[in-house]
């Protein structure tokens, strides 16, 4: 049995705003084993980014606060340790890359300086050695002419190159966990393909685990070993990647998969999920998906379903997943076109 | 065979790059560089490409929101570039646009009724306030929104609802052609499908013609009848969508198709990973613009620009490989 690298238990991160309490993350559980990739997929506002910021302890406080739960990284609960200890872990054991590389790089320092800063903060090396390592990292992430690029500023690089620099910086201290928050969303598809390939090969050579946060089911299918589907601050489905795509058990996951057009299959009409994500200030009672779910019945409005194991580690948070199973067997669609939506 | 509603002939749009002090033109961004295509009545032509390929500029130049550098746009037999202001205003009723960003394209100080009703007033299609409101109500119902939203402001709506308002505005004047410029790319996945379905329903109901501009190939494949692929200001391939996805001829199209991550973990793609970034359109590569990144480039590619011509049954492409 391999020890878990990271275990998140009942994480709750709330934001206290003037309009009320935003329960951005409301009871999230998952785990990551060494060397594996956990994909977290969900739409805007589902709490996927706040989950990652909570793990890094980067939630701005106030207004945000980790209300409850544990984040156990290699046996240590990150919610309980001091800021000083956390600083040793952040950027060293756990690194993070973000969606928009331009806003996460400092425009007034050369990329070399920024990578060297990370190296010198966590390793006891002198400036010369740090620079050598920075150049080596730039080369590893496939930046041409690294000796020259190391002295350039972020604005001199293209979007894809900037994301490579971010990755170089994140990997410069050999992290055991890399959190990638929508790392390819701002990039064109051909550049996205380059970056995903790079991340895959680096994952193998470094043996690190990756937590990949994205809204793109294609990216999820491609890189993940396991997947957590999030909706309105909760994990609604959690499974290995193959069974998830073959046999989605939650109506939301099912709807997401059928609402995207496929390259290899023609359909006349997409199965659109009606309405939109409810405001986090105003989540419904019971199951949070009940405002959009075609299967919702009385129980769904009264009680929140638990995350139930349907066998073989395929977890789903739905009262009616067995009924969905039947509908799928009959080959029917569940999302009727109602014409008037929202 | 249906008639061409829109014909674009050798369209060019260059933007000058000016020097900082004397504002002299020192270079030109060739955003759209000599492209030709036509759109039949009632069809959807998808225009696809990566950022900076000139697809949005093409849409805007057709509508004369940008002044073309050269070339012709013919709409229902009328040469759009030669119309005077009055004639152009009349034509704008027939050609409408839907924008990408539903947050930036709606005036935050106007109510939904005023946003959707404004084109009606401008084109003098309504004579009284009452008439405007009843017309707006009807249009909103057609895009799946109730009349109760009429007096609300854009900030009260979600992204998907705002995009519906944008669609309603375009629809208000009963246009023939709608240029949809990345209409779903700012929306959440589950809401994208709603708007795509809506656009398809409206097309059936009103016999609309779409020029659908997007970077997402799977969305373009779903909604289009034919697809044009753009790269650095040029159309590199244009054909029926089934043919394009089954038999892509241009190496760029092939790599673009192979680069899309598909929502199926069992599929392991043989990916053609392109090297480097899209070059700057200020100084595009000589010959074929794709040659520095093309995995199959050979002698003529850096020298001679390939001709955009037909390779059987309406399948057009511009690549030297195809002449071998």
From TrEMBL, chain A:
One of its GO terms (cellular component) is plasma membrane. The keyword Protein transport does not apply. GO terms for molecular function: ATP binding; ATP hydrolysis activity. Belongs to the ABC transporter superfamily. Keywords: ATP-binding, Cell membrane, Membrane, Nucleotide-binding, Transport. CDD domains: ABC_NikE_OppD_transporters. It comes from Halanaerobium kushneri. Residues 6-257 form the ABC transporter domain. SMART domains: AAA. It is found in: Cell membrane. SUPFAM superfamilies: P-loop containing nucleoside triphosphate hydrolases. It is a peripheral membrane protein. InterPro entries: AAA+_ATPase, ABC_Ni/Peptide_Import, ABC_transporter-like_ATP-bd, ABC_transporter-like_CS, Oligopep_ABC_C, P-loop_NTPase. Transmembrane segments: none annotated. GO terms for biological process: peptide transport. The lineage of its organism: Bacteria, Bacillati, Bacillota, Clostridia, Halanaerobiales. This is Peptide/nickel transport system ATP-binding protein/oligopeptide transport system ATP-binding protein. Pfam families: ABC_tran, oligo_HPY.
Automatic annotation (TrEMBL), chain B:
The keyword Nucleotide-binding applies. It comes from the Bacteria. Residues 6-257 form the ABC transporter domain. The keyword Cell membrane does not apply. Signal peptide: none annotated. SMART domains: AAA (SM00382). Pfam families: ABC_tran, oligo_HPY. InterPro entries: AAA+_ATPase, ABC_transp_ATP-bind, ABC_transporter-like_ATP-bd, ABC_transporter-like_CS, Oligopep_ABC_C, P-loop_NTPase. CDD domains: ABC_NikE_OppD_transporters. Keywords: ATP-binding, Nucleotide-binding, Transport. GO terms for molecular function: ATP binding; ATP hydrolysis activity. PANTHER family: D,D-DIPEPTIDE TRANSPORT ATP-BINDING PROTEIN DDPF-RELATED (PTHR43776:SF7), TRANSPORT ATP-BINDING PROTEIN (PTHR43776). Belongs to the ABC transporter superfamily. This is Peptide/nickel transport system ATP-binding protein/oligopeptide transport system ATP-binding protein. It comes from Halanaerobium kushneri. The lineage of its organism: Bacteria, Bacillati, Bacillota, Clostridia, Halanaerobiales.
């Amino acid at each position: 049995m391999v020890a878990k690298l990271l275990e998140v238990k009942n994480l709750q991160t709330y934001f206290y705003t003037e309009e009320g309490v935003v329960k951005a993350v409301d009871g999230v559980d998952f785990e990551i084993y060494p060397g594996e990739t956990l994909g977290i997929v969900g739409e805007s506002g589902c709490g996927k980014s706040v989950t990652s910021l909570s793990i890094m302890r980067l939630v701005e406080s106030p207004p945000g606060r980790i209300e409850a739960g544990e984040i156990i990284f290699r046996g240590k609960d990150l919610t309980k340790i001091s800021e000083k200890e956390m600083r040793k872990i952040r950027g060293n054991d756990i690194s993070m890359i973000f969606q928009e590389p331009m806003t996460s790089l400092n425009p007034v320092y050369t990329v070399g300086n920024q990578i060297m800063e990370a190296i010198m903060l966590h390793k006891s090396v002198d400036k010369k050695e740090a620079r050598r390592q920075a150049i080596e990292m730039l080369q590893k992430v496939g930046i041409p002419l690294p000796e020259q690029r190391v002295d350039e500023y972020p604005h001199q690089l293209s979007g894809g190159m900037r994301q490579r620099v971010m990755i170089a910086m994140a990997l410069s201290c050999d992290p055991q966990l890399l959190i990638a928050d929508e790392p390819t969303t701002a990039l064109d598809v051909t550049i996205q393909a380059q970056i995903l390939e790079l991340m895959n090969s680096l994952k193998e050579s470094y043996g690190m685990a990756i937590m990949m946060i994205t809204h793109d089911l294609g990216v999820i299918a491609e890189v993940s070993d396991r997947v957590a589907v999030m909706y309105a601050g909760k994990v609604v489905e959690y499974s290995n990647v193959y069974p998830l795509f073959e046999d989605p058990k939650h109506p939301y996951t099912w709807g997401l998969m059928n609402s995207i057009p496929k390259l290899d299959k023609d359909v006349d009409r997409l199965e659109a999920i009606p309405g939109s994500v409810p405001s986090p200030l105003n989540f419904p009672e019971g199951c949070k998906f009940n405002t959009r779910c075609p299967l919702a019945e009385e129980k769904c409005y009264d009680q929140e379903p638990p995350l139930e194991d349907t066998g073989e580690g395929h977890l789903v948070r739905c009262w009616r997943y067995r009924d969905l199973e039947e509908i799928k067997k009959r080959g029917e669609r569940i999302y009727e076109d109602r014409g008037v939506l929202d | 065979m249906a008639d061409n509603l829109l014909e674009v002939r050798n369209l060019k749009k260059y933007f000058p790059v000016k020097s900082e002090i004397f504002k002299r033109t020192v270079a030109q961004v060739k955003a759209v560089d000599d492209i030709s295509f036509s759109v039949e009545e009632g069809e959807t032509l998808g225009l696809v490409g990566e950022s900076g390929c000139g697809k949005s500029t093409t849409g805007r130049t057709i509508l004369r929101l940008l002044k073309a550098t050269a070339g012709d746009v013919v709409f229902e037999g009328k040469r759009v570039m030669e119309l005077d202001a009055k004639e152009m205003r009349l034509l704008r009723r027939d050609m409408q646009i839907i924008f990408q960003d539903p947050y930036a394209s709606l005036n935050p100080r106007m109510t939904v009724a005023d946003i959707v009703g404004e084109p009606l007033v401008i084109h003098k299609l309504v004579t009284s306030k009452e008439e405007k409101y009843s017309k707006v109500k009807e249009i909103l119902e057609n895009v799946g929104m109730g009349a109760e939203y009429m007096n609300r402001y854009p900030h009260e709506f979600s992204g998907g609802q705002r995009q519906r308002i944008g669609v309603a505005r375009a629809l208000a004047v009963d246009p023939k052609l709608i240029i949809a410029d990345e209409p779903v790319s700012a929306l959440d996945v589950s809401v994208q499908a709603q708007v795509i379905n809506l656009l398809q329903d409206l097309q059936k109901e009103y016999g609309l013609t779409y020029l659908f501009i997007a970077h997402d190939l799977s969305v373009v494949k779903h909604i289009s009848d034919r697809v044009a692929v753009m790269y650095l200001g040029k159309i590199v391939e244009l054909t029926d969508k089934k043919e394009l996805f089954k038999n892509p001829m241009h190496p760029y199209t092939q790599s673009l198709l192979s680069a899309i991550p598909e929502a199926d973990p069992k599929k392991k793609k043989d990916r053609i990973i392109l090297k480097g970034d899209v070059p700057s359109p200020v100084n595009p590569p000589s010959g074929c613009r794709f040659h520095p990144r093309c995995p199959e480039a050979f002698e003529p590619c850096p020298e001679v620009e390939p001709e955009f011509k037909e390779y059987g049954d309406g399948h057009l492409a511009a690549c030297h490989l195809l002449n071998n």
